[in-house]
Specification:
It comes from Psychrosphaera haliotis. This protein has ten helices and 19 strands. It is an alpha+beta fold and 404 residues long. The protein binds flavin-adenine dinucleotide.
Length: 404
């Protein structure tokens, strides 16, 4: 799928309600949502969607929860997601090696599914497709980045952009950083971060399966780190191997045949044979921007927070940022400084609170399960047995997993 290219020069000196830097899953969806509110938006993405993205074997996939699905439906983006790139799952199971399985099922809460595993690129492309098919006041420029911004008037920022050859200025009430973990907008605004790198890394292994598509995603906790199975469409699935940096380095050096041997001895038994087609490793980082808002600058998605992907919540938090920002800006006159400041401070309070709770919960899981200490082991067993024995506890966990 190719999208029409708007040259940077064509938007010179234009005025916008919002300039969004970063057209990943979060930024592209936010542009769509703000556009549907009647806002004029400029979306700047340094890359460009490639025509072969969805014909290659999948590599980066996200577990998208039901809250995010509902929101993406509302902004008409969900409907555009390539079907072959999405796989709904009905069941979610977790256990510690050698202990009973705790299983959550959509049937228990009369739902059709608990969530969907979707290729990141498919979510991004869906938003671009919806944008292209609409007649919204949203300009999209690929292959450009922000270089600077300054306060032009009380209610306007001057944003400087470049495509590597020419520089262009535009004016905007808001500048939104949706440019990921190493956000340039965050740097330009001098917003600091706090956080750390986890000792574990994530090794993702895409497999071509010779067994039928599964409706379950599972995670086995092992002292060296969790091992997870993510079902995908088209005979693909993803195995996620969390382990030390050294171990992941070793796994990366293996031939695919030797890697398969390691998978067979380390992972729980899979329902059939498989072939490894692609691998990638990711460092795990926890980062929180010290502030999500500074004057007329707002951070969303990974620009504001990155969390341990243990429970697949990162992009779901990003969609919640976008949904809340859109709602708060709905009836706000963006040139009214007092009103805008008041709305943005609500955004910051709510979203920072939510993402801190989620990050802390992920850290709790990480520390609780990634070790072999006797006392913690007993506590883990107690926790998982309680989750199995108490239907109310199970329901609570399931509601969290759905994202509500
Ligand atoms: C191994 C792993 C597994 C994960 N699994 C899950 C999961 O199952 N579920 C889940 O919810 N989350 C998951 N996450 C987290 C999820 O991938 C991120 O939260 C999500 O990608 C954040 O989206 P984003 O749009 O905010 O940022 P990004 O995806 O980083 O997108 C940022 C965009 O901005 C563009 N950009 C960057 N700099 C500039 C610039 N200066 N100018 C213009 N454009 C720029 C980039 O090209 C990119 O397109 C996982 C993360 C990892 C590492």
């Amino acid at each position: 799928m190719t999208f029409s290219e708007l040259p940077l020069s064509s938007i010179a000196n234009k005025q916008y309600d919002a300039v969004i830097i970063g057209g990943g899953m979060v930024g592209a969806s936010l542009a769509l949502g703000l556009g549907q509110q009647g806002k004029s938006v400029l979306l700047i993405e340094k890359g460009a969607p490639q025509p072969n993205w969805l014909s290659e074997p999948p590599l980066r996939v996200s577990a998208v929860n039901r809250y995010s699905e509902t929101w993406l439906r509302e902004i008409n983006s969900w409907q555009e997601i390539d079907e072959a790139s999405s796989c709904a799952f009905k069941r979610l199971a977790t256990w510690e090696k050698g202990t009973p399985v705790v299983e959550f099922s959509a049937d228990d809460i009369n739902e059709t599914h608990l969530g969907s595993l979707i290729r990141n690129e498919a979510i991004q492309i869906a938003a671009y497709k919806a944008l292209e098919q609409s007649a919204l006041k949203v300009d999209v420029v690929f292959g450009a980045v922000i270089t600077a911004y300054s306060q032009k008037t009380d209610s306007k920022l001057l944003v400087t952009l470049t495509d590597g050859e020419t520089e262009t200025n535009v004016e905007s009430h808001l500048l939104i950083g949706a440019d990921g973990a190493n956000s340039k907008v965050r740097q330009l605004s001098n917003i600091g971060t706090s956080g750390w790198d986890y000792q574990q890394q994530c090794f993702s292994i895409t497999i071509n399966t010779q067994f039928e598509q599964q409706d379950i995603t599972w995670q086995e906790f092992q002292p060296s780190g969790p091992k997870a199975f993510l079902p995908l469409n088209n005979n693909y699935a993803c195995l996620i191997w969390y382990d030390s940096k050294e171990k992941v380095g070793h796994l990366k050096s293996l031939s695919l045949d030797n890697l398969k041997e390691q998978v067979l001895t380390t992972f729980p038994e899979l329902p059939g044979d498989f072939e490894i087609v692609k691998t990638a490793s990711f460092p795990l980082t926890r980062r929180q921007a010290n502030s999500y808002v500074k004057n007329r600058v707002v951070l969303v998605g990974d620009a504001a927070h990155t969390i341990n992907p243990l429970a697949g919540q990162g992009v779901n938090l990003g969609f919640k940022d976008s949904a809340e920002l859109i709602e708060l800006l709905g009836d706000t006159d963006l040139s009214d400084i007092n009103k805008l400041n008041q709305r943005l401070s609500v955004y910051q309070r709510n979203r920072k609170g939510d993402s801190l709770v989620m990050s802390t919960a992920m850290d709790g899981f990480y520390h609780l399960f990634s070790n072999d200490k006797g006392l913690l082991k007993s506590f883990r067993h107690l926790l998982l047995s309680a989750a199995n024995a108490l239907p109310s506890a199970k329901l609570k966990v399931m509601k969290k997993a759905l994202g509500f």
